[in-house]
Amino acid sequence: MRLFSSDVAFTPTVKAIQTKKGSRSSYARMESGGSWETIVTPELEAFLAELDMFYLGTANAEGQPYIQYRGGSPGFLTVVDEKTLGFADFGGNRQYITLGNLSENPKAFIFLMDYARSRRIKLWGNARVVEDDPALLDRLHDPSYPGMVERAILFEIEAWDVNCPQHIHKRFAQKLVAPVIEQLQGRIAELEAKLKALEGKGQNL
Question: Is the full-model pTM beyond 0.70?
């Protein structure tokens, strides 16, 4: 039984290093003030609603870690209840490393990244694969997204934390950049047409 929710990451070894490096006192104040969130809050739900990708971390029985990128339509990582997130698992390269890892080690980690706004959220918990639940798949699947759904994965939250924005390089999704590029291209074409017209008038003088 953990004393603080952040103990899922702040093990005795980690706390010893924090003490050695001089950061333990500030994290101790955080712990006494309530530590990390353990349920879905409106802040987390709003963050998820805009996100179209995340990174899922698992490990096998030997502790070998594995990180997998997951993508879908905005909000595809869905709030099932205040302690549970879920997503439709699409067909891919058929390596099944994540499925194998979860079959022998349910501990999992989700890393949420919003590159455009320099925001990131880390979630610790346990995940499980759901193979035969049509009602759950209907709830999690966006029919407008072209991926072939094979199963669902549910993630039970133990704790989550908002990370600082330092050193996050801004990147923007194509759907945000494309309209700006289209507008600029239209303006360039308009100016080129005006320039051509002026050049034509100059030749007639």
Answer: yes
